[in-house]
Amino acid sequence: MRTAVVIGTGLVGTSAALALSGRGVQVHLVDRDPSSAGTAAALGAGTEEAPEGPVDLAVVAVPPAHTASVLAGAMRDGVARGYLDVASVKGGPRRELEALGIDLTAYIGTHPMAGKERSGPLAATADLFEGRPWVLTPTPHTDTEVLNLALELVALCRAVPVVMDADAHDRAVALVSHTPQLVSSMVAARLEEADETAVRLCGQGIRDVTRIAASDPRMWVEILSANPGPVADVLARIAADLDETVRALRGLESADADERRTGADGIEDVLRRGNAGRVRVPGKHGAAPAAYEVVAVLISDRPGELAGIFADAGRAGVNIEDVRIEHATGQQAGLVQLMVEPSGAPVLSAALSERGWPVRP
Amino acid sequence: MRTAVVIGTGLVGTSAALALSGRGVQVHLVDRDPSSAGTAAALGAGTEEAPEGPVDLAVVAVPPAHTASVLAGAMRDGVARGYLDVASVKGGPRRELEALGIDLTAYIGTHPMAGKERSGPLAATADLFEGRPWVLTPTPHTDTEVLNLALELVALCRAVPVVMDADAHDRAVALVSHTPQLVSSMVAARLEEADETAVRLCGQGIRDVTRIAASDPRMWVEILSANPGPVADVLARIAADLDETVRALRGLESADADERRTGADGIEDVLRRGNAGRVRVPGKHGAAPAAYEVVAVLISDRPGELAGIFADAGRAGVNIEDVRIEHATGQQAGLVQLMVEPSGAPVLSAALSERGWPVRP
């Protein structure tokens, strides 16, 4: 690939343009808002000048609701040899294009699984996609040349290509992204009217469950509007589990020992299925979370305490894979949990103890 | 308080005994399993010898199902001036004691909001309760002397006393602890049958939402069995939101523009209520999560990288309040997010940039 046009210079479009430009591809930037394209160009993402002839690849990075019409326009104008979009849903845009009667051999729908809290070209970075899954949804009609252009883009962005059927993709993101967002919001919504005293009892569990409930509602309305069916299907199955669980809890209130037993079994069942699902969630490096061991150290909250621990861990040659700091309410002291490969745990424990750190068993 | 008896030398009982012994209180240890009391005594939590006369305070730290009967036995034997339990629910034990016709002026129900993954005396530490909320549920009939003994215990354990009505406590933990556990399990349970390709698309959002789905089912069946009514009430309200949300999503699939508009409004409503609830969740030090700013730095995964960052942060005099490390799938490099007080963010950014760290805007 030598030339590309990026249509839509928001976070994703500009980040892809930065990655392509950084690896020697001539990138032309287009946006409905010329100041956005200008910002992207100023960041080194490419040029605002129009290409002289068709480019190798057109990357359409506009909001889901406009994806099909922008793609159709670009394809009618013949701006490129191959076309792809990066919208977070894949079935809808394809069906819209089909309805427009467009030949789809030169098109491939894709979805890079990367993002951040901020949007717009100023939030863009060339490394946004590094190591992230980038879903490609070719059909039997997709030109091999177009698939290879998409694979080249993914490689230049240092992402990990994952080939999926468009509808399977939409069901997968409904399951692993869109549903958790809505459920997190619903748990957090219960706190809106809670007593201040109740809220004081919040611990790390609810803190983690509700973290993404802080997300931008408008952005999520747009995402969910493009994938309502698969999300409703997953939520309906959770609703069935929820109804069963409420019934099981009511059984636990019963005076009848058999009903209490049935209730306890129902509760245990949903908790065990939760265990089974949770172990499938990949950790970083794709490892299951259980693959790390925790070394816990008590610290004060003075600057330099963490530095000392990390320095001593570094000296011991042990790599810290993840960190969690648990602070007690209203207190400065806290417990640092250092996640390490199992082989490193005893080495790290011994090294830190030797240097006087209060390592917890 | 000069003397105490701790009945039940598991994690909580032994930790309280260690804190009391460490601050000069004479502690007598009792457990149905003598080897457990022996272990606690060997750790320095107190003596296995019986007290010569009534002690100042009896701390009953047995499983919820046995709390009332053990309390009743101790009160009939007159082992102490004041009695408290530490069970994770408070309404049930009180009603059981009332049903037994026991004078409750010398009793106060309490609940220390502290725990860990491991149980038993060997997991105990004198600092388990440091800075954690410790709920006290006095009634108008509770002797002031007994309330003061409980407050003294909480102070000696360096916890933060929170006075609540017993039933309000049970509703609060249903909301902030028991419900998030079940909902996390239900989201994780959806992954049990998911395609491997779908699971590969998991990101940090679902990872956080399902973290506590890894919890021990048996322990949670016991906890939930003691508080089924309040948990069912919260879950029923979430179920109502869930049904509304499924309806809103179905509306978004409609051909009718009005129905789509109503659907989008319904989705936006639940997301906004989630925002409003989430800001009420206290962060560490009791601060709302929004109170921190994030300074993000790209690192490789070599030992010593984190040490260097923390050392340079320490030199800049900026205290790091929390850390999150985001690793890309299948990659060694990652993004370190350093949470700092807002005033410290520009100082830290400048200091790290100056020392050559790739700080992300």
Automatic annotation (TrEMBL), chains A, B:
<dbReference type="Pfam" id="PF02153">
    <property type="entry name" value="PDH_N"/>
</dbReference>
<dbReference type="InterPro" id="IPR046826">
    <property type="entry name" value="PDH_N"/>
</dbReference>
<dbReference type="InterPro" id="IPR008927">
    <property type="entry name" value="6-PGluconate_DH-like_C_sf"/>
</dbReference>
<dbReference type="InterPro" id="IPR036291">
    <property type="entry name" value="NAD(P)-bd_dom_sf"/>
</dbReference>
<dbReference type="InterPro" id="IPR050812">
    <property type="entry name" value="Preph/Arog_dehydrog"/>
</dbReference>
<dbReference type="Pfam" id="PF20463">
    <property type="entry name" value="PDH_C"/>
</dbReference>
<keyword id="KW-0560">Oxidoreductase</keyword>
<protein>
    <submittedName>
        <fullName>Prephenate dehydrogenase</fullName>
        <ecNumber>1.3.1.12</ecNumber>
    </submittedName>
</protein>
<feature type="domain" description="Prephenate/arogenate dehydrogenase">
    <location>
        <begin position="1"/>
        <end position="279"/>
    </location>
</feature>
<dbReference type="InterPro" id="IPR003099">
    <property type="entry name" value="Prephen_DH"/>
</dbReference>
<dbReference type="GO" id="GO:0008977">
    <property type="term" value="F:prephenate dehydrogenase (NAD+) activity"/>
</dbReference>
<dbReference type="InterPro" id="IPR046825">
    <property type="entry name" value="PDH_C"/>
</dbReference>
<comment type="similarity">
    <text>Belongs to the prephenate/arogenate dehydrogenase family.</text>
</comment>
